[in-house]
Amino acid sequence: TNATQREFGELFRLDEDLGEITAEIASKAPELKPYICAIPGLRVMKPSDVVEETFCFLCTANNNLKRILQMVRALATEGEPMDEVEEVTVHRFPTIEVIAALDEHELRAKGFGYRARTIPSIARQIVERGGEEWLKKQKEAPYADAHRRLTGIAGIGPKLADCICLFALHHTEAVPVDTHLWQAATRHYFPQWKGKSLTDVRYRAVGDHFRDRFGALAGWAHQYLFYDNMMNWREYRKR
Questions:
Q1: Residue 80 burial (CB count, 10 A)
Q2: Catalytic residue among 159, 194, 196, 238
Q3: What pLDDT, in 10s, does the model give residues 171-215?
Q4: Which of 143, 65, 141, 58 is nearest to 94 (CA)?
């Protein structure tokens, strides 16, 4: 890697005291302590490239890890060549303007599926709002405003907006509610919804529960339940 020590530290939030963070989460939710102890060192990452992080998450909708990686690599090759490593050309991640101009048919041929239409469309909508600078401004906006503006873009729903808010915009109040967090939340906090579908109303209720309980640490707290369920969901299904 060509990252500096400072950049590495920022990526993993090494300037933030993990012990203090986990102690505060455990004090507000003792039921999370076993998960905190089981996954020591878990951190909310803080990537620096708002465009790359935003469009990488747009590749994740209704997708699996293998295809996500293929799509991200395909997008990356559209960027400006930067270096060559072991005869492989390394590219900068493309600008929003480049993504906005990508051909839907070519993306479909690369396995993007319906995202071949939505990803360039979202890029064009962001360009219309001001492009990369508009995205960066959402870092300074309150979380609720940033989330509302993102969901105002056709193709970005509440969960994708929360992923972007948490990891691209660094709003740690954001709580992306995916299948794993939904299952964990219904076990711990909403047993009346266990086995039921995740509606918009229930999505907001789960996120608000975390924000009411943990405040700016909501995004950190959700990570423990997310990773625990991701690693142990088969076992939980037997219960």
A1: 10
A2: 159
A3: 999 999 999 999 999 999 999 999 999 999 999 999 999 999 999
A4: 58
Angle at 9 between CA 8 and CA 11, to 5 degrees: 65
| 3-state DSSP helix/strand/coil % of the chain, to nearest 5 | 65, 5, 30
- Write out pLDDT tens, residues 125-175: 999 999 999 999 999 999 999 999 999 999 999 999 999 999 999 999 999
Q: Give mean pLDDT, residues 18-30.
A: 97
Q: How many other β-carbons are positioned within 10 Å of the β-carbon of residue 155?
A: 18
| CA 237 – CA 229 distance, rounded (Å) | 10
pTM (whole model) above 0.90: yes
d(CA 112, CA 136): 26
Determine the Cα–Cα distance for residues 45 and 172; give it in Å rounded to an integer: 10
pLDDT at residue 2, as a whole number: 67
Cβ neighbours of residue 102 under 8 Å, at least 6 residues apart? 78, 119, 120, 123
The Cα–Cα gap between 230 and 35 comes to 12
Q: What gap in Å lies between CA 120 and CA 107, rounded to an integer?
A: 10
Residue 238: its pLDDT value, please? 76
Number of H helices, E strands in the chain: 14, 2
- Dihedral (C-alpha) 150, 152, 158, 161: value to the nearest 10 degrees? -10
Does residue 153 contact residue 165 with C-beta atoms inside 8 Å?
A: no
In angstroms, rounded to a whole number, what is the distance separating the alpha carbons of residues 5 and 9?
6
137 is catalytic: no
